[in-house]
Amino acid sequence: MPLKSKLPRVGTTIFSVMSKLAQDSGAINLSQGFPDFPIDPALGDLVHEAIRAGHNQYAPMPGLPALREAIAEKVERIYGVPYDSASEVTVTAGGTQAIFTALGAVVQPGDEVIIVDPAYDCYSPTVELFGGKPVHVRLGGDMKFDAAAVKAAITPRTRMLMVNTPHNPAGTILRDADMRDIADMLRGTDILLLSDEVYEHLVYDGEPHASTIRYPDLRERAFVIFSFGKVFHATGWKMGYVLAPEALMAEFRKVHQFNVFSVHTPTQHALARYLREPSHYEQLPAFFQAKRDRFAQGMQGSRFKLLPCQGSYFQTADYSAISQEDDIAFAKRMAVEHGVAAIPLSPFYKDPPPGMRLLRFCFAKQDATLDAATEKLCAI
Fold first, then answer.
1. Any bridge partners for residue 135, and if so which?
2. pTM metric for this prediction
3. Before 245, cis peptide (omega within 30)?
4. Burial of 175 (0-12, 13-18, 19+ CB in 10 A)
5. What are phi and psi of 250, to 5 degrees?
6. How far is CA 264 from the centre of its chain?
7. What local confidence, expressed as pLDDT, does residue 10 receive?
């Protein structure tokens, strides 16, 4: 039977490809973004307690009230902004589901959505699935936000701008000036904003996280996406949440209820209790900055050139002093011949810059893993 694909240009993600190659070749996996160290035992104990207490049936569609209240309290504690837990907070099955649902709620056929490349690989296909048109602009050559390029991409058909800070894969952050530029270019328009902030607590060197939440002109038009899995080392739990004004959230929930309806109930009970102790997330910047610095120190003897890493748990590195192979070929050869798997950056672009020679390494790993990987990388 003939079948017309809705995503004819999409194949297996580069994350799956490189992780499988790492497994098959026995390479150290610094490709896919997940920690190789355990979660806090206290959080695991809370999940077990919730299961034993019988919290094993459907949670309310928007999320457990106690968890939504804890999220709203956390947001107000950090950003000084109140969100109504009943109407402006929804618990999701991770950040990707939140992004998919937000786009599904507002993108109509023919709408344009501006995506800043390199971009997480779910953005563009999701826009296409809902009949929208992805409009790609690039970060600047230094991987910084290019406000002029984004502004030039706006047309009367622009429905949404998608931004990501801290940035995956670049490891850069948006700062106050960037957010003010975005507010200026969207002011007076009906353009919505999707702000992917799943690495909100992974910002380094004393920099503040310039969340969309902090900017009233942006907050009133934004879906803001977060991830428990990223910050609490439990990516396999697929737990996240979205904040949005009531009118936007009402549309979000219309799609959410027919997408996943609700997410894992015992984990929601556990997180509602775990969030009451701020130290669980306040210590994360120092924890991951130490790993960033350990990886960078280990790489000093290599021929890789590390780009600035201001946030996330990803380090981008230029390998042009080693090889002129394209990044996918080099990444595959590095895994097989040198025993370290990384992610090439070209799959994060619609049109990669000519001659780009960049890889992304995940440093959310045990110290022994990082040390073993850098020793191999320095030998290339």
1. 114
2. 0.96
3. no
4. middle
5. -60, -40
6. 20
7. 85
Q: Which of these, 204, 206, 222, lies nearest to 88 by C-alpha position?
A: 222
Question: Which tokens is 380 given?
Answer: 């290339």
Backbone angles phi, psi at 212, to 5 degrees: -55, -30
Contacts of 366 (CB under 8 A, 6+ apart): 36, 37
Contact predicate 269/46, CB 8 Å: yes
* Cα gap 11→7, rounded to integer Å: 9
For the chain, residues with pLDDT lower than 50 are none
In single-letter form, the type of residue at position 228 comes to: F
Provide the CB-side half-sphere exposure for 280 (13 A, CA): 19
Comparing CA positions, the residue from 138, 63, 147 lying closest to residue 97 is: 63
Scored b (16 or more CB within 10 A) or e, 217-246 reads bbbebbbbbbbbbbbbbbbebbbbbbbbbe
Q: Which domains does the chain have, with CATH numbers?
A: 14-32+283-378 (3.90.1150.10), 56-278 (3.40.640.10)
Q: Which residues are CB-contacts of 150 (< 8 A; sequence separation ≥ 6)?
A: 114, 116, 137, 161, 182, 185
Say which residues have a Cβ less than 8 Å from residue 314's Cβ, sequence separation at least 6: 33, 168, 169, 170, 171, 360, 361, 362, 363
Identify any residues that bridge with 225 across adjacent strands, giving them in sequence order.
196, 242
| CB neighbour list of residue 361: distance below 8 Å, 6 or more residues apart | 30, 295, 314, 315, 316, 317, 342, 343, 373
